[in-house]
Amino acid sequence: MQDPRELFRFETDTDLGALVPGPMIVSMGGFIDAGNTQGLLTRHLLDASEPTVVASFDVDQVLDYRGRRPLMVFEENHFASYDDPALVLYRLADRDGTPYYLLAGPEPDYQWERMIEAIRELQRALRVKLTVTTHGIPMAVPHTRPIGLTAHATEPRLIGERNPVFGRVQIPGSFAALLEQQLGEAGEQAVGFAVHVPHYLAQAEFHDAALTALNAIVDVTGLNLPNDALVVAANEGRVQIEAEVAGNEEVGTAVRALERQY
After folding, report:
1. What confidence tens digit (pLDDT) does each residue in 117-160 have?
2. How many degrees, rounded to 5, is the angle at CA 111 between CA 107 and CA 115?
């Protein structure tokens, strides 16, 4: 394996030894994320705080640009801009000033094992003791009932007593899942939450799912994360969803059927 430390560079002038340890939220898009749960949560956390960039990754080494072509803007007779992908580690603080870290960007296409070692190098440097991931998965559930989630962790005590929805199943691998597994094999703590999103809202922006994910992260980390903007957006989203359901008899019938199954 090539040196994983060559995949990232520190972007801060701050003495790393002076940075206070905190949990790390890993948010890498690319895998399934029903309701844009992970995307909404990431954008909310960055907007609600004053993030400082701690480190950035050399995405040219790990992304397939032709598989996920970045957007460009063509204006009249020239190319005006390029939405270059970035994988960045931010340092943020909760409402009490407690620091935490957010690794956000696209899921790597290549060099998963090396990327995991690079993240572990960062975590050792920053003395990160807990890694958290979250995303949305489509489920046959109605939006009118409490939102559930599937929790998984390297140690059962991290998620407490829960009734599992699934037994033993095979699923497509993701970078976040492999990271959690390998952190567990190394004796490190990691936890993840798959939020259950109504399947008919999988392609929409479902703020209630992002709010559920945020609350789960608060419970496991003890962070006092801001939620005001998400609460407002979730309330507005429910009003819009109810209006659309009321205006479509077929959808309304399906929702009532899901309520009976819940």
Report:
1. 999 999 999 999 999 999 999 998 888 888 999 999 999 888 88
2. 70
Residue 140: predicted pLDDT: 87
Non-local CB neighbours of 94 within 8 Å, separated by 6+ positions: 100, 223, 224, 225, 226
pTM over 0.85: yes
- Could you count the other beta carbons within 10 Å of the beta carbon of residue 171? 9
- The 10s digit of each residue's pLDDT in 200-237 is 889 999 999 999 999 999 999 999 999 999 999 999 98
Q: What is the predicted pLDDT for the residue at 243?
A: 87
Beta bridge partners of 90: 53, 102
Q: What are the tokens at 256?
A: 């009532």
Strand partners, 135: 194
Q: What is the DSSP string of the chain?
A: ---GGGGEEE---S-GGGSPP--EEEEEETB--GGGHHHHHHHHHHHTS--EEEEEE-GGGT--TTTSPPPEEEETTEEEEE-----EEEEEE-TTS-EEEEEEEEPPSS-HHHHHHHHHHHHHHHT--EEEEEEEEEES--TTS---EEEEESSGGGT-S---S--S------HHHHHHHHHHHTT-EEEEEEEEEEGGGTTS--HHHHHHHHHHHHHHH------HHHHHHHHHHHHHHHHHHHT-HHHHHHHHHHHHH-
Answer whether 55's CB lies under 8 Å from 134's CB: no
